[in-house]
Specification:
Keywords: Isopeptide bond, Ubl conjugation. This is DUF1416 domain-containing protein. This protein is mostly beta strands. It contains no helices and eight strands. Strand 5 and strand 6 form a beta hairpin.
Length: 101
């Protein structure tokens, strides 16, 4: 069992999106249905593991990161998928992940 925190799309109170870089999105299958409980990993530009969260019941996930190049990788019983993102500055950056076997 993973100790990663459950996620949702609502940002916590006090988050200043003018100063913080927020990566969020939804994990879904090829038909567009949300994938609850997927493990979503944040990998740095060299592929090194940085953090992991568990997608919510609606497939939502969220990370706080620095500007730069990141890979968001979802792992689930439905399949796996990833997307590379490159936020250039603070703000909310939305990136969905589609998983497939």
């Amino acid at each position: 069992m993973c100790g990663a925190p459950k996620q949702g799309q609502k940002l916590p109170a006090g988050v200043d999106v003018e100063k913080e870089t927020v990566l969020l999105g939804t994990v879904s299958d090829a038909a567009g249905a949300p994938v609850a409980g997927a493990f979503v990993r944040l990998l740095d530009s060299t592929g090194e593991f940085t953090a992991e969260v568990v997608a919510s019941a609606t497939g939502d996930f969220r990370f706080f990161a620095a500007p730069g190049t990141w890979t968001l990788r979802a792992l689930s019983s439905v399949g796996n998928g990833d997307v590379t993102v490159s936020p250039e500055g603070p703000g909310v950056h939305e990136h969905d992940i589609t998983v497939a076997k």
